[in-house]
Amino acid sequence: KKLSATDFEAFWKEFSTSIKMGVMEDTSNRTRLAKLLQFTSSATKDGKMTTLTSYVERMKEKQGGIYFMAGASKHEVTKSPFVERLLRRGYEVLYLTEPIDEYVMQSLPEFDGKKLVNVAKEGLVVDDSTAAKEKKEALTKDFEPLLKWLK
To answer: Within 13 Å of residue 23, how many CA atoms lie on the same side as its CB?
Structure first.
């Protein structure tokens, strides 16, 4: 049975924590429960939420995964340099502002074949084009003497 947007909003306010706990603990129903998850996003306005399914539909063609950032508040997360870098490139970022959200993402490594990527973790590669690789190699070569001196 499909709920209207207002009915689902009321349902989400009441049962969001339970659904998130289900994603973490109920491995047999994890995929089905994950379709119900909602988060605020850089693409949503006025406190509206988005589902992971909607996020995947809006993803750029060569986007590596579902990007998210955890923090104490939406303001804190939006001001993160990690998030700003992705927003400048036109990527959408999910804002995880509830304490349980980060644990949910750890227990849900992928959704709809897309990896969930914490933008604050080391090793995030946003631009893997040939030009970006060449630029990185040139910079590494230019700063090689400095790096040797620092070691």
So the answer is: 25
C-alpha of 107 from chain center: 14
Question: Is there a contact between 104 and 26 (Cβ–Cβ < 8 Å)?
Answer: no
For the chain, give the number of residues.
151
- Which of these ranges, 23-27, 70-74, 143-147, has the smallest mean pLDDT? 143-147
Q: How far is CA 21 from CA 6, 36, 53, 60, in A?
A: 23, 12, 19, 30
Q: What CA–CA distance (Å, rounded) separates 90 from 71? A: 21
Q: What share of the chain is helix, strand, coil (3-state, %, to 5)?
A: 50, 15, 35
Q: What is the pTM of this model?
A: 0.80
* Measured distance CA(109)–CA(88) in Å, rounded: 25
Beta bridge mates, 38: 51
Q: Which residues contact 111 (CB under 8 A, 6 or more apart)?
A: 34, 52, 56, 66
